[in-house]
Amino acid sequence: MFKFMADQAVALRGLRKSFGSVEAVAGVDLDIADGEFFAMLGPSGSGKTTVLRMIAGFETPTAGTVELAGRDVTRLAPFERDVNTVFQDYALFPHMSVLENVEYGLRVKKVPNRRQKALEALASVRLEGYGKRRPGQLSGGQRQRVALARALVNRPQVLLLDEPLGALDLKLREEMQVELKAIQREVGITFLFVTHDQEEALTMSDRVAVFDAGRIEQVGTPAEVYERPASAFVAGFVGTSNLISGPAAQAVLGKDGTFSVRPEKLRVAAPDEPVADGEHSATGLVTEVVYAGPATRFVVDLDAGGRLIALQQNLQVSSMDVMGLRGTRVRLVWHRRHEFAIV
Amino acid sequence: MRRRLATCLHRHAGVRLSLLLSAPMAWLGLAYLGALAALLVTAFWSTDTFTGNLVRTFTWVNFEDLVTGEVYRTIALRSLGVAAAVTVIDLVVAFPMAFAMAKLASPRAQRWLVIAVLTPLWASYLVKAYAWRVLLSTGGILGWGYGLGATVLTLSYLWLPYMILPIYAGLERLPNSLLDAAGDLGARGWRTFRTVVWPLTFPAVAAGSIFTFSLSLGDYITVKIVGGRSQLIGNVVYDNIGAANNLPFAAAVATVPVLIMLVYLAAVRRTGALENL
Where in or outside the cell is it found (chain B) (predicted)? Predict the structure, then answer.
């Protein structure tokens, strides 16, 4: 039991936060293990950032507790907690040099050898030689790395990242995703990051908590959340929802309820193609074809009612071939094990 | 025809600019800088002691009197001291007030506080000065009597909004995340203030101090009303224009605060505060 407790880097119990009459966080319980790369995923206004700010100490919960490594820190000020934050706007001090920014936390805590440590931290984010510059002289990606170095140099128990890649362009974002992951493996610190980008959450994290309306809808590994969404919201927010329900479910699957099939699990076939054992299928009309380079997206209106989206790799075909499918009738085929009942 | 004119204006940005600026430039050039130039020229003339007429010949005599006169040096230093004291008092009162307005108050309370700070500016200067005279008079509510202290107090009250508003604007521009970041990195309140808030709002403070300092330096009415027998530079100018009928000497005295303000502005300029006005 003791070991179990010690393994939790962060433990949230019945966490609530109201701003006036608005309940931003409506009861959150969460355990994050030591050394985990954990993502809090959700649309804006789902309460994920407020949870992060309560862990950092910028907001005081209306109810519930925040524990860091088994210690109740709910009422402690930010400067009394062993966590550091990478802010969405980076929050670098514009009147200090890059090196002074990175040294700030060490200087406050009177850590010895701080110059040396700050230089090492800058080197670890590949910014050697940038120490004398002002934050205003750096690009967005460089500022992001300074913010990371400034937080990591303090060796916190938990690093909190608030939409850390939100302000970067796509290419830089993809680079930083890989880099963040590598840095986390290297330092072994628990990373807890907030994002509204489902792809980012899936590619970077060990586990994901999906937030909606101040509550956690599902916690699990990226594969669990993606392949077995626990609710219609998760199915829709993490990936394309592709729901079959009501009379369509009765007609196509022969059972009642709501079911989800991911677009890439659907095969687009000729309407008269025979269906193998263990497969389900549905016929319909292709109403839209979206060519996206490596893959093509087909929007199919089912004869039984409802609409499915199928994603096909462009292995053999060209854009000319797939565009010609608009307005034709097709049969969508998938294996039974890829369809999931949604509660 | 109107179209042709519009097209012409669109093409020639220089013409457009000069048309827009002609009226303000005329005002600035003639009424404002012209008056200052006249003042400077007058300072080098003198008055005939018998007839009281202006003698329009160049002379240094006014400035010689000014520099050698012990009493003028005392008055200049006193004025400087009053202006500095008012600036410091306003800063100490305004900063926490502006901080509360910009960072702690709800958006609704923020609007009301701005209105509350601005409202006294709508009341007449004289009314407010006389109000303080009544407050300070022996037998009044405060009853501290008149003098330099009363002058500093009253001026601090009068110019306070001019210090609060620039600092408030400066703090509004300071992202909250910087305060969060300092706390996150272990800094307590005082350290956050010293290392983050103060350096980043200093230009705003300097901007506010230009108002409080220059307004105090030029004042001669408040000191007449609550200053008892103390005199400031403004009184010397006023008395020389009126009672003493020595316009050239008044002009020479009036260049002193102008010079002090030029030095002050040059110092403030180095902080980058002028971009905050």
Answer: Cell membrane
